[in-house]
Amino acid sequence: MRSWSAPDIVPLPGSGGPLRIHDTATGRIRTTTPGSTAGMYACGITPYDAAHLGHAFTYLTFDLVNRVWRDAGHDVNYVQNTTDIDDPLLERAEATGVDWRDLAHREIDVFREDMAALSILPPTSYVGVVESVDLISELAVRIRETGAAYEVDGDLYFSVEAASKFGEISNLSREEMLDLFGQRGGDPTRADKKDPLDWLLWRAERPGEPAWDSPLGRGRPGWHIECSAIALDRLGPSFDINGGGSDLIFPHHEMGAAETRCATGQPNAHNHLHVGMVGLNGEKMSKSLGNLVFVSKLRQEGVDPAVIRLAMLDHHYRAPWEWTDAELPAATERAERWRAAVALGAGPDAAPVLAAVRAALAEDLDSPSALAAVDAWATTALTRGGTDTSAPGLVRTTVDTLLGVVL
Ligand code: 5CA
Ligand code: ZN
């Protein structure tokens, strides 16, 4: 499926250091060790509604990884899916009287515009589930051939008993797993399953629901296997970073990792990256709760995308945070201050700013510290001035290339 247009990336002098990033599975900050091309997969949207700031915060995080790796000299093979067939999409289409395909296309279009406006680097491969049904059913067949899957009334389930390292990413107790599985799209109470945690790989056709032919019969893919199959197809096993928002740690990423391990004998990824939830008024911002701040709405209201980006960058990606009315005024003030400083003909030496932004981002994407380094330079430039005529240009490029903020 078509991705979105890429912002221009102006190379910076020298190169950045290796990215160190928190890994959910080990709970440690680890140095990533990509080859010449780094591989990364991020779970994409379910396109039944417009993207909200929580989604944008998650894709901003993957965008920072992308920029840090590129600055360190790597190419990046970045894959993102879009869940263009799933229960919530069908339910919304039914409730609003639109065709599910039209709904998905419309919302994916808005998402592309939002991402391009926010200067989020596009995935190398942006992949829908509908266009991937064959490769998803092939992976389900591979899993069935290992003996790890069984049928319940024509639906195919993965048997959790066959998952050799189940819990390796989430490190949760069985009680916690059962609880989250029930809350997040699982079916722990379905009768005739061998274990309540067994999960759906392939759902046999139901009357009135879309279905595709496959070696497993007519039906549609379960949720987790869509991401395992697309990632395996585009990136192979053992790529560098897999992730999404922290709401996906369990069951989605645990069960997806089990599928890849079962089919290939290898882990799906070396590092598991999870982004803190953005909330509004004390709750996680979520489509089902309806407490949303849409990126597209802010853009329509004329908010500068660079300001939206700056507001998000002021929060560390792992910490959950709340969007409040104070975010935009603070970010607007910062953008104005930075713009005034780079508009000066000269300023203090900017090489330390580049070094500080690089160092902050390379250490677990510490974007608040990166902003503080630029703040300090801008304050000095505006209050005491400076004589380096190349400094404003270097700060402008640093901010553009590493933080994606166009001044
Ligand atoms: N299509 C699936 C992933 S395969 C899905 O979770 N779609 S989603 O539209 O619900 O979310 C898209 C991405 O945004 C996911 O990575 C999810 O973890 C992340 N996300 C959702 N809500 C928030 C939030 N409030 N804060 C931060 N990230 C969020
Ligand atoms: Zn996913």
CATH superfamily of one domain: Anticodon-binding domain of a subclass of class I aminoacyl-tRNA synthetases
Query: Reading side by side through the largest sheet, how are the strands ordered?
Result: 5-4-3-10-11
Strand content: 15-25%
* CATH class identity of one domain: Mainly Alpha
Count of strand segments? 14
Q: Describe it for me?
A:
42% of the residues lie in helices and 16% in strands. It is an alpha/beta fold. It has a domain at 326-403: Anticodon-binding domain of a subclass of class I aminoacyl-tRNA synthetases (Four Helix Bundle (Hemerythrin (Met), subunit A)). The strands form four sheets. A five-stranded parallel beta sheet has the order 5-4-3-10-11, sandwiched between helices. A four-stranded antiparallel beta sheet has the order 6-7-8-9. Strands 13-12-14 form a three-stranded mixed beta sheet, with helices on one face. A hairpin with a 4-residue loop joins strand 1 and strand 2 (28-31). The radius of gyration is 22 Å and the shape is elongated. The chain starts with 19 loop residues before the first strand and ends with a helix. The relative contact order is 0.15. The mean pLDDT is 97. Bound molecules: 5'-O-(N-(L-cysteinyl)-sulfamoyl)adenosine and zinc ion. Zinc ion binds at residues 43, 81, 227, 252.
Describe this structure in a few short sentences.
The chain has 407 residues and is α/β, with parallel strands linked by helices. It is 42% helix and 16% strand. It is elongated.
Q: Keywords for this structure?
A:
binds zinc ion, binds 5'-O-(N-(L-cysteinyl)-sulfamoyl)adenosine, four-stranded antiparallel β-sheet, alpha/beta, five-stranded parallel β-sheet, 13 helices, Four Helix Bundle (Hemerythrin (Met), subunit A), 407 residues
